[in-house]
């Protein structure tokens, strides 16, 4: 087994971040509890950042990690995963920035041109949906990554991504939705 | 055309062109049809001629400047126990029984240089490419040591070197600076083999030779004789003449490409996410309906 402890920690951490977003999003849609959703993003972003650092440190040549960023390969789950993680981080960061602006527009509407608040809300909404799709991929790509191999059990079934999605969600549901739904 | 799928690269390039070539790998991979591959070459290993002198192991170490490894006696002449970043070829010893008699069988273990190479297909940086002769080559300047090829190889050949930080394996003597093939020389293991159990040449020619040898063996009573590598994974560039079925020699009977069924693997993930999102919606709607019904019933009984 080439992939050791850092990778298994990463799998846990990435599942936690992706699952938190997914559950947070659903809770937000169902109950309108935005704070819970924001908490999921504020938690998820540093988790993903820490996970990415673990991934880079586990490379044989960590300083060459940029080789991943100048190539895109649709047939390699690791290449796709790189871009998924970048995409999710960019969306989550943008979301946090938009929330700050949104909050300010709400507090001091007289400082902004008319219609700004509506536009900011639209952007924020588009970002949350983009983040939802990406968070699904953040969780499932690692399952595909493990399944696309020649290790006997993983390669024999297309179902490795299923627990990769279910487990983080169950893990997140308990504390989050317990009192919500 | 299959070779093109992996994105081929000329074995020697002027230094100025090296960087642009590396960056454009992906692009060349996606417009694959430009390149016309040359004649495929291959190595033919005849298990019935091998005496397990392990001259190939020594020649490989010596040519590629690899250190010897310290190993422990495991009660067999087979040594070292496995391939490693510093051991690219080894002879596997098998002790079996044939017609109630002890039989000692040997099999070469090294990179198979598959046409459909799993390692090359999963490599996220296009660091694993094929030479014009069809040999699979890990570019040591571009490999990041992620270890995906180690996971993907159906023969468990590449190994990650923790000191150098890249994945390493047999290059069929096409390593930069140690390129025997570019000089028109045979790979070191082939050159050193004293019984001609290893031959290097045009793949088509070797296929014909191998088939003849298998027919000979069958005529001698080895009914399971088999030419391994003719069709496996699109055709291997290391062919094996075996006097028994591949599993006897520790070779997988039907090796699979790691990237096969990849779409269904992605779909499984996405479908699960869809189901997990839909179930709470469904349950919530159902609950609302139930509540509404109860409300209706209560109102009905109130009127009565």
What's the mean pLDDT score of chain B?
87
At the third CATH level, what is the topology name of chain A? Formate dehydrogenase/DMSO reductase fold
Overall domain count of chain A: 1
Looking at the overall shape, the CATH architecture of chain A is Up-down Bundle
The helicity of chain B comes to 25-40%
Rg of chain A (C-alpha, Å): 18 Å
Distance between the amino and carboxyl termini of chain B: 81 Å
Overall shape of chain A: it is elongated
CATH class of chain A: Mainly Alpha
Distance between the termini of chain A: 42 Å
Mean pLDDT of chain A: 86
Could you outline the blueprint of secondary structure elements for this entry?
The complex is a heterodimer of chains A (181) and B (304).
Chain A: H1 5-31, H2 34-58, H3 77-107, H4 116-147, H5 152-156, H6 161-177
Helix pairs in contact in A: 1-2, 1-4, 1-6, 2-3, 3-4, 4-6
Chain B: H1 2-5, H2 15-23, H3 25-30, E1 41-46, H4 55-63, E2 89-98, E3 101-110, H5 118-122, E4 128-130, E5 136-138, H6 148-152, E6 159-161, E7 166-168, H7 188-192, E8 198-202, H8 203-219, E9 226-228, E10 238-242, H9 262-303
């Amino acid at each position: 087994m080439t992939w050791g402890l850092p990778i298994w920690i990463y799998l846990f951490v990435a599942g936690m971040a992706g699952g938190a977003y997914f559950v947070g999003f659903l809770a937000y849609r169902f109950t309108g509890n935005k704070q819970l959703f924001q908490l999921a993003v504020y938690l998820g972003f540093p988790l993903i950042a820490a996970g990415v650092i673990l991934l880079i440190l586990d490379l044989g040549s960590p300083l060459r990690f940029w080789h991943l960023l100048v190539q895109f390969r649709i047939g390699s789950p690791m290449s796709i995963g790189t871009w998924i993680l970048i995409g999710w981080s960019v969306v989550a960061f943008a979301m946090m920035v938009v929330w700050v602006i949104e909050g300010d527009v709400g507090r001091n509407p007289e400082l902004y041109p008319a219609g700004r608040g509506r536009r900011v809300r639209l952007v924020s909404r588009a970002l949350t949906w983009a983040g939802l799709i990406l968070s699904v991929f953040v969780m499932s790509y690692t399952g595909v990554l493990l399944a696309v191999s020649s290790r006997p059990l993983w390669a024999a079934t297309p179902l490795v991504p299923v627990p990769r999605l279910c487990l983080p969600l169950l893990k997140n549901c308990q504390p989050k939705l317990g009192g919500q739904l | 055309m299959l070779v093109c799928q992996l994105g081929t690269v000329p074995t020697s390039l002027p230094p100025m062109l090296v960087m642009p070539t590396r960056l454009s790998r992906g692009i060349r991979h996606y417009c694959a049809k430009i390149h016309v591959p040359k004649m495929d070459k291959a190595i033919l290993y005849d298990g019935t001629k091998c005496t397990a002198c392990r001259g190939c192991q020594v020649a490989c170490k010596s040519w590629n400047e690899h250190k010897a490894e310290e190993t422990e006696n495991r009660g067999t002449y087979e040594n070292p126990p496995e391939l490693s970043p510093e051991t690219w070829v080894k002879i596997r010893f098998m002790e079996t029984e044939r017609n109630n008699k002890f039989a000692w069988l040997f099999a070469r273990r090294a990179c198979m240089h598959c046409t459909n190479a799993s390692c090359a297909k999963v490599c996220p940086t296009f660091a694993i490419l094929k030479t014009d002769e069809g040999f699979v080559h890990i570019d040591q300047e571009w490999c990041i040591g992620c270890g995906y090829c180690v996971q993907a190889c159906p023969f468990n050949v590449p190994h990650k070197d923790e000191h150098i930080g890249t994945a390493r394996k047999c290059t069929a003597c096409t390593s930069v600076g140690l390129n025997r093939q570019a000089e028109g020389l045979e790979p070191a293991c082939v050159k050193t083999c004293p019984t001609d159990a290893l031959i290097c040449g045009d793949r088509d020619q070797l296929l014909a030779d191998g088939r003849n040898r298998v027919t000979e063996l069958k005529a001698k009573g080895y009914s399971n004789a088999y030419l391994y590598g003719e069709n496996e994974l699109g055709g291997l560039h290391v062919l094996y003449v075996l006097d028994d079925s591949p599993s006897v020699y520790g070779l997988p009977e039907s090796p699979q490409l790691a990237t096969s069924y990849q779409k269904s693997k992605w779909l499984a993930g996405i479908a699960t996410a869809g189901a997990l999102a839909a179930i709470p919606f469904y349950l919530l709607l159902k609950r609302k309906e139930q509540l509404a019904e109860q409300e209706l019933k209560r109102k009905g009984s109130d009127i009565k």
